[in-house]
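Memo to structure team: turn this sequence into structure tokens by end of day. - J.P.
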Amino acid sequence: MAKMKNINKQILSAPIEEEMKNSYLDYAMSVIIGRALPDVRDGLKPVHRRVLYAMLERHWTHDKPFVKSAKIVGEVIGNYHPHGDTAAYETMVRMVQDFSLNVPLVTGQGNFGSIDGDKAAAYRYTEAKLSLPAEELLKDIRKDTVDFVPNFDGTKPEPVVLPAAFPNLLVNGSNGIAVGMATNIPPHNLTEVINGTIAFIDNPSIKIIDLMKYIKGPDFPTSGLIFGAKGIKEAYLTGKGKITIRAKIDFENTKTGKERIIITEIPYQVNKTNLIESIANLVKEKKLEGISLLRDESDRRGMRIVIEIKKNMNSQIILNQLYKHTQLQVRFGIILLALVDNQPKVLNLKEILNEYVKHRKEIVVRRTKYDLKKAEARAHILEGLIIALNNIDAVIKVIKSSKSVDVARKNLMTQFKLSEIQATAILDMKLQRLTALEVDKIKKEYADLQKLIAALKAILSSEKKILGIVKKELIEIRDKYKTERKTKIIMDSIESFAIEDILADEDMVITISNAGYIKRLPIDTYKRQRRGGRGVSSANMRKEDFVSLISIASTHSYLLFFTNKGKIFWVRVHEIQQESKQSKGRPIGSILNISANEKITAIVSVKDFSDDSSLVMITKNGIIKKTKTSEFNNAKKKGIIAINLLSNDDLVDVKLVEKKQDGFIGTKHGKGLRFNLDKIRNMGRSAKGVKALNLSKDDEIIGMTVVLPKTKLFVVTELGFGKRVDYKNFKAKGRGGKGMTYVKTSDKTGGAVGIKSIGDNDELMLISEQGIMIRFQAKTISSQGRSTQGVKVMALEKEDKVSDIAIVTEDTL
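Reply from structure team:
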């Protein structure tokens, strides 16, 4: 076994934490500078810059034939970007796509992908060349306008930045994720950006808010709508902000009367195919109802996605649901992060323009110096030629007498005090230049060069002239590539959707069983019947359970639950699970934090928690209390105390009341009292209330109703008897009395279980303990006197009893 040679090497020790930190920082900066972030001056990442420069070097310009993309990719990865052909090709593909860039930098021929999400064909099938705007970014690059560095293997030079005749960073935008940072710069309108840059040149102290008069906001190649100037202003002031982008929507009506939502523009970077699939999946999973047809009618003339709405459905509600659940509306987080002197920096709008103008000033200066140097070199040669032409005979004699070219050059330099360059030019001069015409051309060229040299020196000595050239060239670009704004900016911002925006305002029937199961169903589930019928089953109840409460409320409303122990909870109606007709519902404890020894005894629906309305509570023992609705806006699902009760009392009913209204309290044995609600003052939540009615032995309060205009009192008993009574039969009296008879109860009728105020065009919904429900018109029930028992309004099975009633008002029918 051969011995290993002993090679002397210096080994440095270092703490592993320090070494890992330094190595990671080196890696992070390599990614930040070398791959992920654009340069503020030309708006390009290294790979984009290399693709464009490689194409220029091979003269694959806009006026030349297309070249196979495979050839371009090979040139890029072989000479400038050794990171894989996929990265180089995908970069070039994006620079072709007019739905990705406002000003495409590469012109393509073949399949370069689509807004539908179709991928580009393989590079062996496509062809490309530089676009004319890309050549504006590369213009004057050979005039020493930018620095060059060796490529990865040191065989070729490559530019560190392009001259960039227009502010590409803003015009085409950029996005990328580096190590610990990200950039997301939206594209802007070229005309607006150049106008803003010119305004900055004219007034360097201009405020950002004034710049926004020129640069109004992002302008996406896919158009769409931007909502809210606040996010744009924040981004331009601080470098970070969020904007909301929406699709452009139109509405159409079909011949059959259906409404259609037509999508003609979608938000930037949204995949059209994925968008359509997401809508279809929402419909399929029944998360989005009301859509009868979804079709993509897009063609070469433009985008057109058709969504047909079912009859009698609210198209705006459905559209709001689409905005909330699909990419018809997206949030775009703006991060104006770019490299400044090879360091990542978050910039405001003015700083971006300042860095760009500084860059263009440097380009103009370096280009002018290059042109000056070239002009001076040519003038130097012409000076020598003019000397030779003025002394042509002597020059010829010197040349003829010289033994070699080198000797002739030296003799010319000595005799006529010429430089080596001038002497060489004289020796290289053709005899045809000795004609009078050629001599005049040389003298004219020299005179023109002297003027050019003077003009170039004047430029270099004046910053004003340098800025004037920057401005002039920007105006030329603007006028050459002038574009109209595609994306409309709506000044009003969009807040997060309220439930009212995405949920149809639909009346629901909410039922609660004695065992504590709750559910909701659309009111149309229960068809109208004749009074006295047996009704239909509304739930599969356990033998020991029965339906105890029923209420009708809008999906947009708050539903307030009051327990027998005097607590209040509330949820939004839409938060209650919609169940099937036969379902028993869900445990109410799953939505409310209710104790095991409590049960819900009253339900009230409200649109909001206002100071203009009050809640009147009545207990089993006749205690009444009024409290402003606004006192309960923080109850929610955890619950708070609504009324303090004595140990032997229960809260039995609650009603929402307004000013100048009367109330009517009814007892189980048929005693009732009408009184003025304004005479009861509002009390705090911790109050106990006051006496409303003196009860007879074994009697108790069964409920309360509010006396409304053009209504009558409706009462129903346990065994299904009911009647209407004109409120004229009851005079308003002070609280604390014994009341008067409003229904005659007996073993045949059972005790009274519910009272309501109903109009002739209202409907009644009665539910029994066994879950049987009947719905019928109020006007089918006869009006009777106070002391009658009423008529049969619901036929009940043996052992079954009416448990509660609800009103379907004329407004909700």
